[in-house]
Write a structure and sequence with these properties.
The chain is an alpha/beta fold. The chain has helices spanning 4-16, 26-36, 79-97, 121-124, 162-173, 199-206, 248-251, 307-330, 337-349, 352-367; strands at residues 21-22, 47-53, 56-63, 66-68, 105-110, 127-129, 131-133, 139-140, 182-188, 213-216, 232-237, 257-267, 273-274, 277-279, 292-300, 370-371.
C-alpha cells in the first residue's frame, strides 16, 4: 500500500526537478505585472516570503508600501497569512522535536485563491500556491484551513486544525449508518461572484422543482456546522470564484458519496484551454477512485460580443451536469460504496504529522536550489 507521505513527496520531487539555479530577477516582472492589473498600487502584495535562518522562522509581507515581518505582520489582518505562518512554525517545531536538521532557506508563497499569472513564472521560480491548474509547475501547499477552520460561525469563533476538525467530523459521521442518511444530494455554500461558471447558481435554479437535489446558497444568513453535512447520502463539491474548493478534504470524512465537478476553462477568443485545478488533497486522492468525478466546461472571453453566447454555453453545461447528477441519484447506491470506502480510508489517515513532514521536505528541497 502506498504511504501518504510518499504520494506527497512525489509531487515535491517532480516540481523541484525544474529548479537548479533560479534567477530572482523574474520576481521584478511578476510584481510589475501584478500591479498593472490593479486600480491602486497600495495594497497587499500576495507574494509572501517565509525566511528560515538558524531554526527561526521570519516572514516578509508587503502591504501599503510597507514591509512587515514576524513581529507585526498580523496587523495586516489576513488570516490566510497568519494560518500559513502557523503551519510553517509548527513544522519547524516538529522537525526540532524529531531531531531533524533545518536548513536555512527562503520559500516564496503566493497567498491568494488564484495563481501568479506572469508568463511561465512557474517554470522559473519555485512558488507555493494553495491550488493550481494541473498542468502548471507551481508547488501545492496545504491551504490555511488545515491550520484553522471555524465550525460554530462562518469565519468566526474557535479555530480547529486538521486533526481536531477531523475528530469532530468522524465522531459524528461514524455514528450514522449510510442507509439512515437523508436521501438527497446536498450542497451548502455562498453564491459565487464575478467571472465564473455559475455552477452553484445554475444548479440551484434547476433544483427548484426537484425533491432529490438540495442546493443552498445561504451560508451567510443560515450557517450550519460543516459536520452536519454527514447527514446526507450525497455531497457535492462545487467550485467557487476559482475552479477549486477547500471543502473537498472534509467531505471525504463524512462517509457519504462525494460528487466533485471539475472545471475545464476555455477562452473562446484564443481557444486556450486551462485544465482542472488541484489542491493539496488531490495529491493523495484520484478522480473516480476515491470520489465520483464529473467534468464541466466553462467558456469565457474578454470580448464583450461573446458574453451572451458564453452565458448560454455555460448554462447548457450546467444542465448537462444536472442530468448527470440525476442519473447518479437514480443508480443503485451500492455501485458507489466501494469509492466511498476508499476515499474515507485514504483521507482519514491524513494527519497533522503528514502535513508537517510534507512542509519540512519542501524546506529541504528548496534549500538545495541555487537562488541567484
Amino acid at each position: 500500500m502506498v504511504k501518504i507521505i510518499e504520494l506527497l513527496n512525489k509531487h515535491i520531487n517532480k516540481c523541484y526537478e525544474k529548479y537548479k539555479t533560479v534567477e530572482l530577477k523574474y520576481l521584478i516582472n511578476l510584481k510589475k505585472e501584478y500591479y498593472e492589473t490593479r486600480s491602486t498600487e497600495k495594497s497587499l502584495y500576495p507574494l509572501v516570503l517565509f525566511i528560515i535562518n538558524n531554526n527561526i522562522l521570519d516572514i516578509s509581507v508587503e502591504c501599503d508600501d510597507k514591509i512587515y515581518n514576524k513581529n507585526n505582520f498580523k496587523e495586516i489582518n489576513d488570516d490566510r497569512i497568519t494560518h500559513t505562518y502557523n503551519i510553517m512554525n509548527d513544522t519547524l517545531n516538529w522537525a526540532l522535536n524529531n531531531n531533524k536538521k533545518i536548513p536555512n532557506t527562503t520559500l516564496y508563497f503566493w497567498i491568494s485563491d488564484r495563481i501568479p499569472w506572469s508568463e511561465n513564472i512557474d517554470e522559473k521560480i519555485p512558488i507555493y500556491v494553495v491550488a493550481k491548474p494541473k498542468n502548471t509547475n507551481f508547488i501545492v501547499f496545504p491551504d490555511n484551513t488545515f491550520n484553522c477552520i471555524t465550525l460554530e460561525e462562518k469565519y468566526n469563533g474557535v479555530c480547529y486544525d486538521w486533526d481536531e476538525v477531523k475528530k469532530i467530523i468522524l465522531d459524528k459521521a461514524t455514528k450514522i449508518e449510510f442507509e439512515d442518511k437523508n436521501n438527497k444530494m446536498f450542497f451548502k455554500g455562498a453564491p459565487t461572484t464575478k467571472r465564473n461558471s455559475k455552477i452553484r447558481e445554475n444548479l440551484q435554479e434547476l433544483s427548484k422543482d426537484t425533491n432529490w437535489l438540495s442546493i443552498n446558497l445561504d451560508a451567510w444568513s443560515a450557517y450550519i456546522s460543516m459536520d452536519k453535512f454527514s447527514e446526507y447520502k450525497y455531497l457535492l463539491n462545487l467550485s467557487g470564484h476559482y475552479p477549486w474548493s477547500n471543502r473537498l478534504k472534509y467531505l471525504f470524512l463524512m462517509n457519504s458519496i462525494i460528487i466533485n465537478v471539475d472545471i475545464e476553462t476555455i477562452n473562446t477568443s484564443t481557444n486556450i484551454i486551462e485544465p482542472r485545478w488541484i489542491s493539496f488533497i488531490n495529491l493523495i486522492t484520484k478522480p473516480n477512485k476515491h470520489y465520483k468525478n464529473l467534468k464541466m466546461k466553462y467558456y469565457w472571453s474578454n470580448n464583450k460580443d461573446e458574453k451572451l453566447k458564453n452565458q448560454e454555453l455555460n448554462y447548457n453545461e450546467s444542465v448537462r451536469i444536472f442530468k448527470k447528477l440525476k442519473k447518479i441519484f437514480n443508480n443503485d447506491t451500492k455501485k458507489y460504496l466501494p469509492i466511498v470506502e476508499k476515499g474515507f480510508k485514504r483521507v482519514s489517515k491524513l494527519n497533522n504529522e503528514h502535513i508537517y513532514e510534507y512542509a519540512y521536505n519542501c524546506i529541504v528541497r528548496n534549500s538545495l536550489v541555487d537562488f541567484v
